[in-house]
Amino acid sequence: MDETINYDADVPMQGTVYRPSGTRNAPAILVFPDIFGLGEHAHERAERLAGLGYVAMAADLHGSARLLDFPDAMAELDRFYAEPDLPLGRADAALACLRNIDGVDADRIAAVGFCYGGTLAFEMARRGAPLAASIGFHSGLTTNNPDGASRVTGKILACIGSEDPAIPAEQRTAFEAEMRAANVDWQLHVYGGVYHTFTDRRCDKVIGQPNFARYDAVADHRSWNAMSSLLREVFQAEI
What we know:
The chain is an alpha/beta fold. 36% of the residues lie in helices and 23% in strands. It has 7 helices and 8 strands, in the order βββαβααβαββαβαα. The longest helix has 19 residues, at 217-235. It is globular.
């Protein structure tokens, strides 16, 4: 079952909530899309998470808009990195909205994101957001908040392709050093021979750069299982 929900940030936002069967208070997951905005991929993943027993909210990034033009999306990505309080404010609004939804256990919430959406989930954790876990798939690992790892209270999982040009080995090494220095409970899964956007079957059509972004069914399956395992662990749930 899904429902559209409206909430406010710097602009009016709109998300979609997917619920599991039953009426008990359930752990909940914020699902952040890639920089193009809320589309089929994020909705599909949120629906699958509901099938695992979680309330999942596919969260807005751009005020109900979707950026379909690649240069426009990249320009917005540059703006988000230059003005981090803007996307973080939108993410915080989504979190507040999710915590107040009927049927959600407000003390058991995680964030999952894809590409920039995963970067945003990690940045929320670095700002001390009350998240049991922050999980990113093919997500940038750099931060403009280098001391933020000390504020992470939940667990971290990053799932990255070894051949992803956007996330080179040096970035992975720096992320590892950051997490280790702050004593974070973290995991970094690197999938050999795998490129950017490996969880999205539509990436070839949307991006059209196979040497940059390429779907990989095996890495998609393995990373989903890694996420599912961590969510069961942090929520201590028989799901």
